[in-house]
Amino acid sequence: MATRDPDRKRQQLMEAALAEFAEYGVAGARVDRLAKRAGISPGLVYSFFAGKEGLFEAVYEAIAEQTVDAVPIDADDLADYAGRLYDAAAQYPQVMRFLAWYSLERAERPVPAIVARSMDEKIAAIEAAQQRGTVTSDKPAGEILALVLALANMWQHHTEDVGHLVTDAQRRSVITDAVRRLVTPDEPGSG
C-alpha cells in the first residue's frame, strides 16, 4: 500500500514549478504541465498553493530565503559578497531565469516581507561598515547595496552585444574589482 507524503509532494511541486516558471514565466506556465513535471495531480497545485499565482510567490520566497542563508552579506568585504552572489547565480541559472520572469511579471507588486527584511538588514550592515570606516560614506548604504547587487548580477542578463566583451573566466574578477573600487574609502588626503 502506498503511503502519502505531502511534504515530499510539495517539494516535488516546488522543484517542478521552478523549472516551469523559469521556462515560461507565470503567464505562460500551465498547471497541467507543471503537475506532470512533478508527478502529481493538477488538483494538488490548488490544494497546496491556491493555484499557479500562489505557487509562483511561494517559489520566489523560497529562493529569497535560500539566497539569504546561502550567501550572507559581509559588509566589510562587499567585493567578496558580490563574487559569491555571482558564483551562486552561475551555479543556478534556472533560478536566475525565474528571477528575471519574476521582475518582469511582478514589477508593480509590493516587495515580499522576507526580501524587504533582508534588504533592511543588509543596509544596516553596510551602514555599520561605513561607521567602522571599511566602506565609503560617499554614498548612502542603500545606493551602495543596489550597485553591489546590480554588479553581481550584471552577467546574468546580458546579451551577446556585450557578452563577448569579457570572457567567462574574467567576469567574476571584473565584478569584484568594480565593487572594491566602488566601496573602498578614499585614503586621507587623497581627495
List the helices and strands and how they pair.
Elements (H helix, E strand, L loop, with lengths): L5 H23 L2 H8 L3 H8 L2 H19 L7 H14 L1 H13 L7 H20 L8 H12 L7 H4 L4 H16 L8
Helix pairs in contact: 1-2, 1-4, 1-6, 2-3, 3-4, 5-8, 5-10, 7-8, 8-10
**Which oligomeric form is depicted?**
single chain
Please report the total strand number as a whole number. 0
Number of helices: 10
Shape: elongated
Q: Give the low-pLDDT segments.
A: none
Q: What is the CA-CA span between the terminal residues?
A: 76 Å
Q: How much helicity do the residues have?
A: over 70%
The class by helix and strand makeup works out as mainly alpha
Give me the strand/helix succession: HHHHHHHHHH
Please state the average pLDDT score.
90
Major sheet size, sense and barrel closure: none
Radius of gyration, taken over Cα atoms and rounded to an integer in Å: 20 Å
User: Could you tell me the strand content as a percent range?
Assistant: under 5%
Keywords: DNA-binding
Protein name: TetR family transcriptional regulator
Domain HTH tetR-type: 7-67
InterPro entries: Homeodomain-like_sf (IPR009057), HTH-type_TetR-like_transc_reg (IPR050109), HTH_TetR (IPR001647), Sco4008_C (IPR041467), Tet_transcr_reg_TetR-rel_C_sf (IPR036271)
